[in-house]
Design a protein that fits this description.
Blueprint lengths: L3 E6 L6 H10 L10 E6 L5 H7 L4 E5 L16 H7 L3 E4 L2 H6 L4 H13 L3 E6 L3 H5 L3 H13 L11 E4 L13 H18 L2 H6 L2 E4 L7 H5 L6 E4 L6 H10 L1
Parallel strand pairs: 1-2, 1-8, 2-3, 3-4, 4-5, 5-6, 6-7, 7-8
Helix pairs in contact: 1-2, 5-7, 7-8
The structure holds phosphoenolpyruvate (PEP).
Phosphoenolpyruvate binds next to β8.
EC number: 5.3.1.1
InterPro entries: Aldolase_TIM (IPR013785), TIM_sf (IPR035990), TrioseP_Isoase_bac/euk (IPR022896), Triosephosphate_isomerase (IPR000652), Triosephosphate_isomerase_AS (IPR020861)
Family: Belongs to the triosephosphate isomerase family.
Length: 249
Amino acid sequence: MARTIIAGNWKMNHGPKETQQFLSNLSDKYFDKPNVEAVVCPPFISLPIFQEKVPKWLSSGAQNMYFEESGAFTGEISPKMLADLGVKYVIIGHSERRGLFNEKDDDVNKKVRIALKYGLIPIICVGETENERDNNKTFEVVERQVKKAICDTVKETLKCLVFAYEPVWAIGTGKASSGKDAEEVCEKIRGVLSSMGDLNQANEIPILYGGSVKPENLEEYLSQPNINGALVGGKSLDANSFSELLDLA
Ligand code: PEP
């Protein structure tokens, strides 16, 4: 059975000062539930202070990284740098990276492979646009994104992956998917993973739902058999709403 993960994606919010404030607002909350992990992914510039002040029960993640170790890639951050800092997770292929920064399935694959090499756990985001959904392409798009993201990764590393199903039309819009619809796609993702490895391995991979998750709808997702948590943007920015989500997990 896959572990449950509640992961916050701060996007381009919370510099070092606000990160410190978030952590001090969180200081009276202690979270310890078996098989549930809490993760926050601050911007790169806030990761060092986050790593320094983070309580033991909370894990860290980056929101992106480049697919090379080092070199002439002005403005980029490498997986080696993240691993040296002790960062545990890295979000790869978020729809904002794919849509606004033109990241392709091939870039996602390169990032996944080098993340695994450095012991970082990729949170691989997949999901269809509104137009693709309207044209009944959801399964096709998601299957392609999953397969391409992990092609040429060895079977044994499958257990080190996390997926997030994030329908693009639901991100930051307040138009969350229904639990039933999200479950159908997450079941499909698990089926694809199972066909690429084996069923036991596929059952161990956490598949998160993301897209306008809030305390009022989280339980609807967590009650689905193939949804093992949430990737949360807006509602992870405030320590109180983030810990409210953790309490519900
Ligand atoms: C996200 O950033 O991945 C996300 C799902 O954002 P929100 O929860 O704000 O929709």
